[in-house]
Amino acid sequence: xxxMNLCLISLLLILxxxxxxxxxxxxxxxxQKFKSVPTTIKTYENDTVLLPCQLDTPFHYVRWHxxxxxxxxSRHPEIPPPERVVLWANGSLQVSNLKSEDTGDYxxxxxxxxxxxxxxxxxxxxxxxxxxxxxxxxxELPIGATFEVVCMAMGVPQPAISWRLNGNTxxxxxxxxxxxxxxxxxxxxSMAGLIECLAAxxxxxxxxxxxxxxVLFAPEPTLPHPVVYTKVGDRAQLExxxxxxxxxxxxxxxxxxxxxxxxxxxxxxxxxAGSHALDSYVSLVKxxxxxxxxxxxxxxxxxxxASNSIGFRSATVELTGRxxxxxxxxxxxxxxxxxxxxxxxxESMLPIMEFKLRFRQIxxxxxxxxxxxxWTELTIPAQVTIGPIYITSYTLHGLQPAxxxxxxxxxxxxxxxxxxxxxxxxxxxxxxxxxxxxxESELQYDATEEIFENEITQRSHxxxxxxxxxxATNCVYNTxxxxxxxxxxxxxxxxx
Length: 496
Ligand SMILES: *[C@@H]1O[C@H](CO)[C@@H](O)[C@H](O)[C@H]1NC(C)=O
Ligand SMILES: *[C@@H]1O[C@H](CO)[C@@H](O)[C@H](O)[C@H]1NC(C)=O
Ligand SMILES: *[C@@H]1O[C@H](CO)[C@@H](O)[C@H](O)[C@H]1NC(C)=O
Ligand SMILES: *[C@@H]1O[C@H](CO)[C@@H](O)[C@H](O)[C@H]1NC(C)=O
Ligand SMILES: *[C@@H]1O[C@H](CO)[C@@H](O)[C@H](O)[C@H]1NC(C)=O
Hints:
Layout: H1 6-14, H2 27-33, E1 40-44, E2 49-51, E3 59-66, E4 69-73, E5 85-87, E6 93-95, E7 104-112, E8 116-134, E9 137-142, E10 146-156, E11 160-165, E12 168-170, E13 181-185, E14 193-200, E15 207-222, E16 227-229, E17 236-245, E18 249-254, E19 257-258, E20 265-271, E21 283-291, E22 300-307, E23 312-320, E24 327-328, E25 340-347, E26 352-362, E27 376-381, E28 389-396, E29 404-413, E30 424-427, H3 440-443, H4 449-455, E31 465-467, H5 469-495
The structure holds 2-acetamido-2-deoxy-beta-D-glucopyranose (NAG) (5 copies).
GO molecular function, one term: axon guidance receptor activity
Signal peptide: 1-20
Pfam family, one: I-set
């Protein structure tokens, strides 16, 4: 055991009180006889200290004890004093080249003609703190694990211990009475990093020791493109980026069947550089499944399944010939009070056959009671244009003036229907106060396919719709690119 241990020091402090040899009964009387005063000397290793023991009167003999260890006695000069200890003729005790074991209480017992007295001094040999942790080095544990870090600090006086996680001081102690150990629970990956224990006792610099925590976790696959648009005969690539610790292995499935690698389909992986130095143990790999020449049978749902010792996770990616979702390019120019020009764009590897447009009136601010009108669905045949980019313009007529509408559109090619476009709003000319819709997501509050299908009750004959493809397309196409950003700004200002 270390000699600086607090318990041991306490024990040494108690021991002298149990000895009968020295007389402490007349403390006050003792004090009055001494010229020297009791002192506690706090000093450092290798120093020399002088403890005085001086009476008002000349003395017969003097002897010293450290705690219960006899050191010197002037009546027995033939007994050599311990190493590094000297008794001077004036009764003072010198201890040189101090070591940790010299820490203690020093009792001077002195006798003159008339007096017998005892005085106590103390020496504390101070040591800079030092600290070790258990465990130390690198600790690898999965999310959910609980572990204890024990911190053993040494130094005189006893150092105070504090904890840090990634430089942030921790003040939650699982066992408040004992600051020497800290229990950690790994709640998330963000706990990864450096756990440190600091010991400070006012002597020299605080000491630091630590353990590097690596949080292990089941693979986390992400898909840069959850839907990959292609057509038969094209080359297609499916990407799956996997983050994992330890590194994961990956397998591709097509409708649940493992993908057979060969001349037709192969997969590559590329190690991506970790973003954070502390997370350098995290493996980040991009897996690419390449289909050289897409066949009809290659279309459909793919699964990238990544697994490591902690677990496995999957992500599904769709390879499809469907058109991409349409994107509205709303013309901010003034519209008539009863009609509105809609422009949208989509991309398709196969020719677009038709569009399905749905719209409905939504409450504007001057309608006190919210009215929910049903969706109106229009089928709009596609014009014959050359892809893969298709820009379509369509004018809605017979709309209620000064009103607010929302609209979405789908496109179909020979492969199937696209996903829904985002639902966007437009207003017909006239004074219309817009309600407080703050975000795009609010717009899509009930624009689900189910509601859509259920509420198609009004048919297109109620509204006279006219096609304005050719002229509008040419005009809009040229200005669209330049206007897009401007439109988005206008829309944002108009609708927020
Ligand atoms: C005391 O002396 C020893 C031996 O020379 C040395 O190793 C140690 O570092 C010294 N301690 C201090 C606090 O200077
Ligand atoms: C006692 O003697 C030592 C050695 O001569 C001296 O250094 C010290 O100052 C003396 N102490 C007193 C209190 O006279
Ligand atoms: C909303 O207010 C405008 C102008 O104040 C009015 O022309 C329009 O009819 C109102 N709309 C409804 C639905 O009350
Ligand atoms: C909307 O559709 C529902 C269910 O089909 C029907 O009961 C309701 O009358 C329709 N509302 C309007 C305003 O047409
Ligand atoms: C819109 O919000 C503002 C402040 O957030 C509020 O004063 C105003 O009454 C709201 N208007 C409507 C129509 O809810």
